[in-house]
Amino acid sequence: MGHDCGKHGYKHKKLICRIFIGFLIFQIAVLFIVFLVWAILRPTKPSFTIQDATVYAFNVSTSPCLLTSTIQLTITSRNPNSKIGVYYDNLHVYATYRDQQITLPTRLPSEYQGHKEISVWSPFVFGNLVPVAPHNAMALAQDQISQMVDLVIKLDCRVRFKVGSFISGRYHLDVRCPARITFGSRSTGVLVGGGVKYQLVQGCSVSL
């Protein structure tokens, strides 16, 4: 009897092993098919453009150097893929000056972008009495004299790509949009409802 139980246990373990190996082979086959589809379709990262920036406040105080700013942006994103959709998750936008963040991050709603679709966002970014780093304070003072400030608008988010019913994992997307703001006699903006609107239509750099 004990010998029979041993053979029965061996067969049971062998069956479990076969089931496990079969499941593993199935998983590998599925992953290979997904990889093959992915390689053939070659997903391309989205392209971004900053269309305009409307400046409602950009005030600098000295000793210490503090910056208060309110800016409304218009940013577009285009999905260049004809067979791949894009999900945008945890999307935040903020303004920087010489690599220093000068506004709080504004969160945008999650969005799905279909094949060849274009999305448009018009967020406000705010910064109230933000301390400017000493080396940037000197540069900002010089920019005020020249009546020209170069900002970089940054977007951070996680993207997922959709191929058919398959949805990829999340990838970090880093977007940098140059925005040149001019003041005084050099201003190229147009007065709009208490702010100055600058037409930029500038392509952004995108890292994935």
Show the helix and strand layout.
Layout: H1 2-41, E1 47-61, E2 66-78, E3 85-97, E4 100-101, E5 106-108, E6 111-113, E7 118-121, E8 124-131, H2 134-146, E9 148-163, E10 166-167, E11 171-182, E12 190-192, E13 195-203, E14 205-207
Antiparallel strand pairs: 1-2, 1-13, 2-7, 2-8, 3-4, 3-5, 3-6, 3-9, 9-10, 9-11, 11-14, 12-13
Topology pattern, helix = H, strand = E: HEEEEEEEEHEEEEEE
The helix content, as a percent range, equals 25-40%
Shape: elongated
Annotation, overall tally of beta strands: 14
CATH topology-level name of the largest domain: Immunoglobulin-like
Largest sheet: 8 strands, antiparallel
Give the CATH level 1 class of the largest domain: Mainly Beta
**Structural domain count:** 2
Give the integer mean of the pLDDT values. Answer: 89
The helix-and-strand class reads alpha+beta
CATH architecture of the largest domain: Sandwich
| Rg calculated over all Cα atoms | 27 Å
Work out the helix count.
Answer: 2
First CA to last CA: what distance?
A: 64 Å
Fold and architecture overview:
By secondary structure, the chain is α+β, with helices and mostly antiparallel strands. It has 2 domains: 9-41; 47-207, Immunoglobulin-like (Sandwich). It is built from 2 helices and 14 strands. It has helices at residues 2-41, 134-146; strands at 47-61, 66-78, 85-97, 100-101, 106-108, 111-113, 118-121, 124-131, 148-163, 166-167, 171-182, 190-192, 195-203, 205-207. Strands 3, 4, 5, 6, 9, 10, 11 and 14 form an 8-stranded antiparallel β-sheet that branches. Strands 1, 2, 7, 8, 12 and 13 form a 6-stranded antiparallel β-sheet that branches. A hairpin with a 4-residue loop joins strand 1 (47-61) and strand 2. The longest helix has 40 residues, at 2-41. The radius of gyration is 27 Å and the shape is elongated. The mean pLDDT is 89.
